[in-house]
């Protein structure tokens, strides 16, 4: 049954108001995390990119496609209940996940299943703005620290520099470097994954190649982090530990991330050439 314009407007105001009241505290806390945690500073861009991804689908979304469905109310209720239960249990990740679930429900209720299917990926893309649970974070970062340290040592030795590794500690002749969480590569991995996901979605690759482009962000992020650690250790062996701190350390992170973007673009170009050859 189609809703009248006035009825839809009233319902929209009511549901958006409920959404704002229920999720305001969670959203404010989420934005605070983006502001204070450099690992998730890319969170500010995720909603903007998601809106752009939907805008790119504008030609596929015609007025005739709008077929509001009351099934959306079920999803909205599920999302809101999920948030309430998670808040009672102080489970931050689930509270934030409930935001995305509720947005799916709002889309189904006001725009219908067909449009929601077409915008499902951009809505799901919002998951990249949510910090992962600490327990999962620790299971990822520590192995990354050890792996990056081990690989960096091989590169450093190949450069002819003497180095001893003790876990995530690199001992050079005149410097000692610790591969901490921030140097594990997790920061660039998360931001590069979110970027590659949008890049793959907006590209005209086949579904398989979209997945290849998206997943390629993982080895690229790990590779550039190993390069950064190796270069930092190489400089530290000649100029001391100071090069691993302050401006030079941050600037090297920017340069390495630019390299990661270039490599990601390179994967895109290779996939394009492979497609042209197969035609």
Structure description:
The chain has 279 residues and is mainly α. The protein has ten helices and three strands, in the order H-H-H-H-H-H-E-E-E-H-H-H-H. The protein has helices at residues 5-36, 45-55, 71-88, 92-111, 113-124, 134-158, 186-202, 207-215, 217-239, 246-278, and strands at residues 163-166, 169-172, 176-178. The protein has a three-stranded antiparallel beta sheet with strand order 1-2-3. Strand 2 (169-172) and strand 3 (176-178) form a beta hairpin. The longest helix has 33 residues, at 246-278. The chain is globular. The mean pLDDT is 85.
Q: What's the structural blueprint in terms of helices and strands?
A:
Blueprint: H1 5-36, H2 45-55, H3 71-88, H4 92-111, H5 113-124, H6 134-158, E1 163-166, E2 169-172, E3 176-178, H7 186-202, H8 207-215, H9 217-239, H10 246-278
Antiparallel strand pairs: 1-2, 2-3
Helix pairs in contact: 1-4, 2-5, 2-7, 3-4, 4-5, 6-9, 7-8, 7-9, 9-10
Overall mean pLDDT stands at 85
- Give the beta-strand count: 3
Q: How many individual domains?
A: 2
Oligomeric status: single chain
Report the portion of residues in β strands. under 5%
**Count the helices. How many?**
10
Strand order of the largest sheet: 1-2-3
Query: Helix proportion of residues, in percent?
Result: over 70%
User: In angstroms, what separates the terminal alpha carbons?
Assistant: 47 Å
The biggest sheet, with number of strands, parallel, antiparallel or mixed sense and barrel status, is: 3 strands, antiparallel
Helix and strand string, N-terminal first?
HHHHHHEEEHHHH
């Amino acid at each position: 049954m189609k809703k009248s314009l006035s009825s839809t407007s009233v319902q929209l105001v009511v549901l958006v108001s409920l959404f704002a009241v229920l999720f305001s505290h969670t959203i404010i806390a989420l934005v605070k995390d983006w502001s204070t945690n450099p690992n998730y500073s890319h969170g500010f861009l995720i909603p903007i990119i998601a809106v752009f991804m939907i805008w790119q689908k504008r030609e596929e979304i015609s007025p005739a496609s709008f077929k509001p469905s009351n099934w959306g109310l079920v999803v909205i209720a599920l999302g809101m209940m999920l948030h309430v239960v998670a808040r009672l249990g102080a489970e931050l990740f689930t509270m934030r996940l409930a935001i995305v679930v509720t947005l799916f429900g709002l889309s189904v209720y006001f725009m219908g299943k067909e449009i929601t299917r077409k915008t499902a990926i951009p809505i799901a893309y919002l998951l990249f703005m949510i910090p992962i649970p600490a327990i999962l974070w620790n299971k990822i970062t520590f192995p990354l620290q050890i792996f990056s340290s081990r690989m960096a040592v091989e590169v450093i030795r190949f450069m002819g520099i003497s180095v001893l590794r003790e876990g995530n500690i690199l001992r050079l002749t005149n410097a000692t470097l610790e591969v901490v969480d921030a140097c594990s590569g997790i920061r660039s991995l998360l931001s590069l994954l979110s970027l590659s996901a949008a890049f793959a979605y907006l590209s005209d690759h086949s579904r398989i190649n979209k997945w290849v482009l998206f997943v390629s962000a993982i080895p690229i992020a790990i590779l550039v982090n190993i390069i950064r650690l190796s270069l930092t250790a190489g400089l530290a062996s000649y100029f001391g530990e100071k090069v691993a701190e302050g401006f030079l350390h941050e600037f090297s992170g920017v340069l390495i991330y630019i390299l990661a973007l270039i490599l990601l673009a390179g994967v895109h170009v290779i996939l394009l050439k492979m497609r042209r050859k197969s035609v």
